Amino acid sequence: MRSAYILRHMDAFTLNLFGAFALGCSDVQDAAMASIGLSRAELAGLLAVHARPGSTVGEIAATTGLTHSGAVRVVDRLSDEVYIERRTGRDRRTVAIHCTREGRQKARLALQLREAALAGAAARLTKGELAEFRRLAKKFLAGLPGSRPDAWRICRLCDHEVCDAGRCPVGGAVR
Predict the structure, then answer these.
(1) What's the DSSP call for residue 89?
(2) Where are the domains of the chain?
(3) CB neighbours (10 Å) of residue 119?
């Protein structure tokens, strides 16, 4: 298998760098977006609905990594805060969830805060280094998802308007 090859040919220090990089970026964006006053699960749920209007509770559960009942509770809290609304779904047996105007504003604010925080973290890189990072990150990310729900979960905090379907290495890996 490819991962066994990597383990034999990559040193532990490089693997630590991968792990620390991932956690460091996660911490930076979490801290920036915490100021909007939503829990991590609520934020992930709101951004899932913002990215895919008409999502079902099941799709939100898949995106956030919550159980179905956990996703229902997130949807209830976001609905109580007037950030999302429930509508009749495609087949009348499901519920389609959409952002309200306030929800779209809150989602855009969270994405702006995330972008600013990550830009600050990347500020030490030169233009050439950023281009090389982009190339390597796209290659690395394309190997992560095994399914469409995996891709949703990986990209749960992404600004989907920036990384449209044609450019997203994660979404492109599971088409």
Answers:
(1) -
(2) 2-169
(3) 9
Q: How far is CA 72 from CA 41, 75, 77, 86, in A?
A: 11, 5, 9, 11
Alpha-carbon distances of 106 from 16, 24, 123, rounded to whole Å:
35, 24, 26
| Assigned token pair, 27 | 């911490």
Query: Does residue 34 contact residue 27 with C-beta atoms inside 8 Å?
Result: no
CATH number given to 2-169: 1.10.10.10
Residue with tokens 């499901």: 94
Helices 57-64 and 40-51, axial angle in degrees (round to 10): 120
Predicted TM-score (pTM) of this structure: 0.88
Distance CA 60, CA 66 (A): 8
pLDDT band at 24; cut points 50, 70, 90:
very high
Angstrom distance (rounded) from CA 100 to CA 78: 10
Whole-number CA gyration radius for the chain: 18
CA proximity to 47, closest of 34, 60, 30, 29: 60
Q: How far is CA 155 from the centre of its chain?
A: 3
DSSP 96: E
| Phi, psi (deg, nearest 5) at residue 158 | -75, 155
Q: Lowest mean pLDDT of 12-21, 55-64, 75-84, name the range.
A: 12-21
